[in-house]
Design brief:
4-stranded antiparallel β-sheet; 5 helices; 10 strands
């Protein structure tokens, strides 16, 4: 029922749907010192392994639990920020998205939002030229594995803790009167040193959405070959705790944008 309700909302309001080991400095092409680490995302190395993905509820779209095998990868320590996305736009002569009239002005250290799936992919391709390797959005399996803490996982419900207030900005724990995006990295990190994988903003994953895991791959799964919705993960400032569980799945039309939908990047060497 959750997905059906979301789909109706998206159809009715297509532009405002609710989605929602570090590389070393010498690994970056600094190009005459024009860049520093607040303009290029810091990456956390995630050693590959086997982990249990999903939950044991047949009424859920993250059923069944499977033993998933993943190769090693790196993932950005924080969600891509406004400052980082602005550098990309300046270099590629893209128009920087305009903040909506009811929003605060763009703030450099907050997560970048109001971007489509293709916008996020374009950023990844640009980033390849800066840090090398292959840069892309995380698969849904990579996202969940990293959020769980990889091979250092302590099996928390949320990314880094069973107490969501320690690790996530969600509806009800904002410092002000209203739900407002927060600067990245202000809560506690998870077991791998990754921040904000629960709460603040939803994050694009590369997978097309399917209603369960029954026919999916076990080794480095990439999801269905086609679809209509993309998977988004992590919850946001507009969600309650139950919607910010590591295993929770949501969906978004890849052509649309939202005020609580951002992304982070995976790098393959």
């Amino acid at each position: 029922m959750k997905k059906f309700k979301i789909s109706l909302l998206m159809l009715a309001f297509p532009m405002f749907h609710i989605i929602t080991s570090s590389f070393k400095l010498h690994d970056i092409n600094l190009e005459d010192n024009l860049y520093n680490v607040d303009k290029i995302p810091e990456m956390i190395y995630v050693e590959g392994g086997v982990f249990k993905m999903g939950i044991e509820s047949k009424s859920s779209d993250n059923f069944p639990v499977r033993n998933i095998k993943l190769n090693s990868f790196s993932i950005s320590k924080y969600e891509i920020t406004v400052k980082q996305f602005r550098v990309f736009c300046q270099e590629t002569n893209r128009d920087f998205p305009k903040a909506r009239a009811w929003d605060h002005i763009w703030e450099d250290e907050k997560p970048m939002v109001y971007i489509t799936y293709d916008d996020a992919l374009s950023y990844c391709k640009w980033l390849e030229k800066k840090i090398g390797g292959i840069c892309r959005l995380p698969t849904e399996a990579e996202w969940e594995y990293a959020a769980k803490g990889g091979n250092k996982s302590k099996n928390y419900k949320y990314s880094g803790s069973d107490d969501i207030n320690k690790v996530a900005w969600i509806s009800g724990n904002m410092p002000g009167l209203y739900n407002e995006l927060q600067p990245v990295g202000k809560k506690e990190p998870n077991e791998l040193g990754i921040y904000d994988m629960s709460g603040n903003v939803f994050e694009w994953c590369s997978d097309w959405y399917y209603c369960n895991y029954l026919d999916s791959q076990i080794d480095n799964p990439k999801g269905p070959s086609s679809g209509f919705w993309r998977v988004i993960r992590g919850g946001s400032i507009e969600q309650k705790a139950k919607d910010c569980l590591i295993t929770d799945r949501q969906i978004a039309n890849p052509k649309n944008i939202d005020s609580v939908l951002g992304f982070r990047v995976v790098q393959l060497k």
